[in-house]
Amino acid sequence: MSKVLWISNGRVIDPKNKRDGIGDLYAVDGKIVASLTDEQKKSAEKVDASGLVVCPGFVDIHVHFREPGQTHKESILTGSEAAAAGGFTSVVCMANTTPPIDNPGLVQSLKDIIARDAIVNVYLTATLTKGMEGKELSPTGSLKKAGVVALTDDGLCVQDNEIMRRGVEYAHMHGLPVSDHCQDVSLTRGAVMHEGDWSLRLGLKGWPAAAEDLMVSRNIILSEYTGAQIHLQHISSAYSVDLIRGAKKRGVNVTAEATPHHITLTDSCLKDYNTNFKMNPPLRTDKDRAALIAGLLDGSIDAISTDHAPHSFTEKDQEIDKAPFGIIGLETSFAVCMETLVEGKHCDLPFLIGLMTCKASEVLKLGKGTLSAGEAADIAIIDPDETWVFDKSSVFGRSKNSPWLGKTFKGRVKKTIVAGKIVFDGNKIIR
């Protein structure tokens, strides 16, 4: 017997198809359908979405699930649960695990773990260079055949321009984008936070925006030179936004993302030396924050990604110089962006949902983020008006390194549905 899902009376927002209105949504055997027969309606699992928003499940093209090697921080199982709690139905894992994902055998073993443990769609990347050492290219063709969706040394940036050039050329030959963490390490050794007034006040080693800008420029040049798609990760600098905007006007094949924390927070948040505000790239100035928002609004920046980076309490509970960079973000992404972009009157709700669904999917050509008939029934149901407190007891992931602990948000995910199956319902995971 077919499995039938009937979501009724919700505000259905599907930016890909420019749909926004009160209506019903149907799925049969995990696929969206335009309508149900009378017989199917009788057997359907019904969900009343009155007063709620029904949209495609969110897509995050930049997460760290730490498996293999660091599962004390996060695993595919716990990371997928955190994703579901945040309304995400598709995520792309970075390759900077222990060991790094640089060979087809490791890709296959992780695909087996995903099939066993994940409750959302989990896609894999592989490293651009072996061991993420920036010296020798990983086996691009074999990794493509193994099923990765992109190549990236995220966490490190290839410093050798010739290696990077050859890497993006080979990736382009095999139809793979290269995602790059833009950082000139010669400018950031020992750096803790953005180089500016606050780093001087706090006596902390500064990280200049130029470290990002130089590598963004390098990647734009290489993309224009080779035709390869280079995706610029977690952009944080106003000047980088201008560089990307100009490149796109010339038709250069670059894409870019911004994180919820970089569009919301600034370097002043580190005034109390709270390591949950220490991230890579660092929080920058209000001018940079405003430029990122403008970039999202005009399409210079393609999508929002969380850079979900779990760390244990003991790792983060150190002097700021010693604590690792990064924060978790999957469970708060929508609420943070809702407050910053929608409540802040920069854009409306359908535009925000587009940044977190179809636009993110299009960057890596995942074929997700839409409610089109025939596509997978990956759906998020949201109460845009519900207020809630994000505290440690509500975290579904394994780590709790968030700058938003204790904060009251407006806008909450109520249900997450993957291939027609409810995997998150209210406050519980369903396996």
Q: Characteristics of this structure?
A:
nine-stranded mixed β-sheet; 19 strands; alpha/beta
Describe the structure.
- The chain has 431 residues and is α/β, with parallel strands linked by helices.
- The protein has helices at residues 38-43, 76-85, 104-117, 140-146, 161-173, 197-202, 210-226, 238-249, 286-298, 313-316, 333-342, 349-356, 358-364; strands at 4-14, 19-28, 31-33, 45-48, 53-56, 58-63, 88-93, 121-124, 151-152, 178-180, 193-194, 206-207, 230-232, 254-258, 303-304, 379-390, 407-418, 421-425, 428-429.
- Strands 1, 2, 3, 4, 5, 16, 17, 18 and 19 form a 9-stranded mixed sheet that branches. Strands 9-10-13-14-15 form a 5-stranded parallel sheet.
- The chain is globular and about 65 Å long.
- The mean pLDDT is 98.
Present the secondary structure layout.
Elements: E1 4-14, E2 19-28, E3 31-33, H1 38-43, E4 45-48, E5 53-56, E6 58-63, H2 76-85, E7 88-93, H3 104-117, E8 121-124, H4 140-146, E9 151-152, H5 161-173, E10 178-180, E11 193-194, H6 197-202, E12 206-207, H7 210-226, E13 230-232, H8 238-249, E14 254-258, H9 286-298, E15 303-304, H10 313-316, H11 333-342, H12 349-356, H13 358-364, E16 379-390, E17 407-418, E18 421-425, E19 428-429
Parallel strand pairs: 1-4, 1-5, 6-7, 7-8, 9-10, 10-13, 11-12, 13-14, 14-15
Antiparallel strand pairs: 1-2, 2-3, 5-16, 16-17, 17-18, 18-19
